[in-house]
Amino acid sequence: MHGYGPMPQQPTTSRPSPATLTTVRVILVALTVLSCGLLGWAAMLRLAIVTRRPRDWFLLVVVVALNVGLFAFIMATPDDPDQMSDAAALFMMLWILGLLAGVITYYLYAEIRHYNALGAQAPYGAPAHPLPYQQQHLAGPQQHQPQQHQPPNPYTAPVTPPTPKPAPRRLDQVRAELDELSDYLRQENKDSRDGEGR
Predict the structure, then answer these.
(1) Cβ-contact 10, 126 below 8 angstroms
(2) Residue pair 110/52 in contact by the 8 Å Cβ criterion
(3) Residue 114 CB: number of other CB atoms within 10 A?
């Protein structure tokens, strides 16, 4: 087994590209406007799935209830606009405008804020928790963390660096070479005398 700890897990939530986010937002907003707010629950459903916050799930239920109530109110009104009272028409128009403004504004605000916070916490393509060597590189050379002194291990013998051998002195080297040269000359001189005696 290696002495390394468990590797950090990659974040499960990946940030889509800006073009994809813009396209989805435009489609959901257009769907909400063209349906007069009756399909506003689709934008709130996406927001609740993306953020996974209890508040967004609660608001999704509220919007669904308002959509059901608006649909029932529209079905209960007479088909002929002349037979509808001014108060009923005003009430239905305020209901539709309020639902449109509330759903679109909150959906865009909450989703943009969610993805901005997600991008600030974990940049796209980077792990959520950097490895120790990444933390050292990110910290820079100026920031040094205090090192903790550990007690010496009694089972490991202290390693002493080898002592360098002193280099031979230049004078001793020259003296040794002169001695070798003088021995060589004596030997040559002796050999020459022996040759002449013969």
Answers:
(1) no
(2) no
(3) 18
For residue 193, give Cα distances in angstroms to 4, 183, 184, 198: 80, 15, 14, 9
- 3-state class of 95 per DSSP? helix
Task: Determine contact, residues 100/34, Cβ cutoff 8 Å.
Answer: no
Residue closest to 119 by CA, chosen among 15, 33, 43: 15
Say what the alpha-carbon torsion angle 186, 190, 191, 196 is, to the nearest 10 degrees: 140
Cα–Cα–Cα angle for 189, 190, 191, nearest 5°?
90
Which of 167, 48, 33, 163 lies closest to 101 in space, CA to CA? Answer: 33
Nearest to 32 by CA among 99, 123, 114: 99
Cβ–Cβ under 8 Å, residues 46 and 28: yes
Q: Per-residue pLDDT tens for 137-161?
A: 555 555 555 566 666 665 665 666 6
Our separate counts of H helices and E strands in the chain read 6, 0
- Type of residue at 74: I
* Total-model pTM: 0.51
Nearest to 53, CA basis, from 111, 133, 108, 98: 111
